[in-house]
Design a protein that fits this description.
The protein is mainly alpha-helical. It is about 80% helix and about 0% strand. Helix 3 (about 40-75) runs antiparallel to helix 4 (about 85-105), helix 14 runs antiparallel to helix 15 and helix 16 (about 360-380) packs antiparallel against helix 17. Its main location: membrane.
Length: about 425
């Protein structure tokens, strides 16, 4: 029975899913131990660091992983060497990282004062964590493109396992500095890369250098969509520190609450890898009924996930964040209701975005995320409490993205004749928030 079920999922799903599960668990353990070990002010600084790292890290470097995977897979299927793809991907990731590091260094004093209570060490940790994600995502692109999914899952699992072990060690030894809890986000991914280096190193070198054009063709729009999607889901914690720097309790409590309400997003990540290929297949063959049937089923699944998570979050959320993360009692059932609505709408946007990509409508997806971020910014200035402002921003931004995508999809759907096959660079946008 188990063998039959495994035959129904795409190759590598189990290996990658196991790694994702451990990495997701590590996020909860990481924040739970930190929440019980740090003061409210220090946990708030760690929360802001966490949000920035995964907003920029996933937003910038996940598209690099996807492009490297796409080109490596294509060359591998043709029997061509692919070492130069890794070199190009590394150059691209290094360029993006260098640009971000330059901006961070230029603004290090305002960043430290405004976001990290004057602690410049947290800015250094931020740079290190972004560098670690740049290396990790680039090498994962090679592993994915070569279909070395056990190695891919191993890198995720080592990263997650080390996070659990390292933060447990910090907690048991009584470490109370947010710098060390942030440094785990540097060490764990880099060690995961080192453990899974052999197949990546074997892929280095050989063949004719790869031109930049294939790597950059769809990267711009993918990066825009990826960054904006992470802004929608992660910016709330950062906004609390910007809007109310002295309100350290709310920033930490909000990150803990978001980790809980976004559990359905993590579950969806394990299903998402097979959604785009299915939608793309029906679109390219002109199977109008099949496309909409699969889209409706996917929306039904995420709606069930989101509603189940919403009920549990509203009922148990305030108690869970205090029990699991030692978060201050500043968020009530109403706050969790807004966050749950936002997460449900975000799930819809993720599914509808995959449908747009299946139709090769990258610009439409990027436009929807841009409009959603604009709506988020507008909602953030509502004359209400700080917590409600960021909750409304997340909720309204997500709803607007989903609504715009639905409207854009209705303007063009698969016809009876095949549409142009979409490029394979758009697969998974990454699990939001690093969970």
């Amino acid at each position: 029975m188990i063998r039959r079920l495994l035959s129904l999922v795409p190759p590598g799903t189990v290996a990658v899913g196991a790694g994702l599960a451990l990495l997701g668990l590590a996020s909860y353990v990481h924040l739970a131990v930190a929440g019980h070990s740090l003061t409210e002010a220090d946990y708030s600084s760690l929360s802001v660091l966490w949000s920035i790292v995964f907003t920029l890290g996933i937003g910038l470097f996940m598209p690099v992983e996807q492009e490297v995977a796409r080109i490596v897979a294509g060359r591998h299927s043709q029997g061509l060497p692919h070492g130069h793809v890794l070199a190009r991907g590394a150059d691209l990731a290094a360029g993006l990282l260098a640009a971000m590091v330059a901006l961070i260094i230029a603004a290090r004093e305002p960043l430290a004062d405004r976001l990290f209570a004057g602690d410049g060490s947290m800015v250094a940790v931020l740079i290190g964590a972004l560098a670690a994600l740049a290396v990790a995502h680039t090498t994962r692109g090679v592993l994915s493109g070569l279909q070395l999914f056990p190695w891919y899952g191993t890198q995720l699992g080592v990263d997650g396992g080390l996070r659990i072990a390292l933060v447990a060690l910090l907690g048991l030894t009584g470490v109370t500095s947010p710098v060390w809890y942030g440094a785990v986000l540097v060490a764990a991914p880099l060690i995961g890369v080192a453990v899974t280096a052999p197949p990546v190193l074997r892929a280095v070198g050989g063949g004719v250098p790869v031109a930049w054009a294939p790597l950059l063709r769809g990267l711009g729009l993918l990066t825009v969509s990826s960054l904006l999607s992470q802004v929608v889901v992660n910016i709330g914690v950062i906004n609390v520190r910007v809007l109310a720097p002295s309100d350290v309790a709310t920033a930490g409590a909000l990150l803990s609450a978001l980790v809980l309400v976004r559990i359905p997003l993590f579950v969806f990540a394990s299903l998402q890898a097979s959604l785009l290929p299915g939608l793309a297949t029906t679109a390219t063959t002109g199977d109008h009924a099949g496309f909409h049937s699969l889209l409706r089923r996917a929306l039904g699944v995420v709606s069930a996930l989101g509603l189940t998570g919403a009920v549990l979050a509203v009922l148990l959320g305030p108690w869970l964040v205090q029990t699991l993360f030692d978060a201050p009692a500043v968020l009530g059932h109403g706050d969790f209701a807004w966050l749950a609505v936002a997460t449900l709408a975000y799930l819809w946007a993720m599914v509808l975005g995959q449908a747009l990509l299946a139709l090769d409508r990258h610009r439409a997806q990027a436009l929807a995320w841009a409009i959603g971020v604009a709506a988020l910014v507008a909602a953030t200035f509502a004359p209400v409490t700080t917590a409600l402002r960021v909750e409304l921003g997340y909720a309204i931004g997500s709803v607007v993205v989903a609504a715009v995508m639905a409207i854009l999809l209705r303007t063009r759907t698969p016809r009876t004749t095949p549409v142009k096959a979409p490029p394979l660079e758009a697969v998974m946008p990454g699990v939001p928030g690093g969970t």
